[in-house]
Amino acid sequence: MTGLAKASGLRMGLLLAFFVGLWTVYASLTQLNLDGFGDMLENYSWGIAWEQGYYKHPPLFAWITAAWFSVFPNVDWAYYLLSAVNSAALMFASWRIAVRFLDPWRAFLSTALFFFLPPVTFLAIKYNANSAMLPFWAATVWFYLRFLEKQRLSDAIILGALAAASVLIKYFSGALLGAIVLHVLIDREARALLLRPGVWVASLVFVALVTPHLIWLVGNDFLPLTYVSEQGDGSALIGITSAPRFLGALLAYMLPVVLVLLIAILRNGRGPWFDATPFLALRKTLAGRALLWTGFGSLALTLVLGIAFTVQFSSVWALPLYFAAPIFLILLIKPGRLEAQKLAIPAAVVIYGASLLALSPFIYAEEAKNTSHYNNVPVRAIATEIEAAWNDRFDTPLSHVAGDKILASGTTFYTASRPFSMQGNSYALTPWVSPQAVAEKGMAIACFDGQSGCLAKAEELAGAGAETQVLTVPGFGGERSWTVQLFFMPPAAQGS
User: CB–CB of 32/403 below 8 Å?
Assistant: First the structure.
């Protein structure tokens, strides 16, 4: 490794370490709960079952969550650390892409710009199927470029594995893989690879890794696809009508990055700002065309497929689409316009990070006012009370929990017993929880007071005459209390 490469690697290591530290601390200081929708708790409740699929999504991001917490404690900061490491992994892969098209300093700057990109920061604090795609999309493109460069079988194998991993996180990754396939078929230089073994080795690896999930999918009536089809209002034109908002959100997310770039340009003296020549030159090389296809082709396929299948576009789908966005922006800036005052963007990163930490108490105070969804529910405290109520009655650990989504999955995540949580209060949606297992080990069912649908399902599951208990748990800051109705299905050894 040359001295320049060592310096570049050290610089990148420091940048990524700062990113991980900043966003772990920031999230820990500003969030009342992991997320307002309970998705992060749900990830864990799925992952510890180690199934080949779940009723909403493929399995990989849930497995990653379960694996992470087999090492780290089940506390919020450790979850935010996972989110930050996930985004940092995207940044590293994007950097490895950038060095193929930019000089070392500009490649570093393109990576630093991710600090100002909300889909990689504020939105990615919430680790779920959307944010989990971030590093896998970037890494898939990175190894696609490596394969195009050297045509090594080792790169083909890794490419196939990364492509499979992307799909096993979310089927939306088909947009990226479709763009790669189209590039191979349409680009004359890339098409020649079809006569060599590497493409087919990558394809075989991909098929081998996704086959277990495909078998699960067939055996479970294509549940995740049914879930996707039920999103939106069912209108045949929903894809067309929601596409403009989706595109508007994509552009809006870029505004902070553009602002930082403009400030950096102004700090670097006078003269022309932009030069499209390096960007347009991407069309002249195989790697450049591959980057254009994966960067813009995946967006085009997203729009085409969403409209064709009448899917309502959501702005959070945009998260993995930005893997090369800073690279494209840097390519448009005239050489020399970021080099006179080289530290303008790194200084902006430090100032921005320090500002976020300084403002964190005020941001937390604003978050505390947010009463939407589950944002202000004291999930950990309620989960602790649910486990304590069970332990007061029974000698065996709590093995199963059902009821409201956040109460059930929160009890799974936060309590020492780590019970399986029933998804949607349905045995059909939770094949790892059987009626026989519940009859043997028992189950607690928790619903919020007045939650009629949940309470009705609890009475149906627990049966007539089930023992109940009402919990009253103070909220954050003690401004209000939360009332939870518990139903107990006792273990067989202690049943009445």
Answer: no
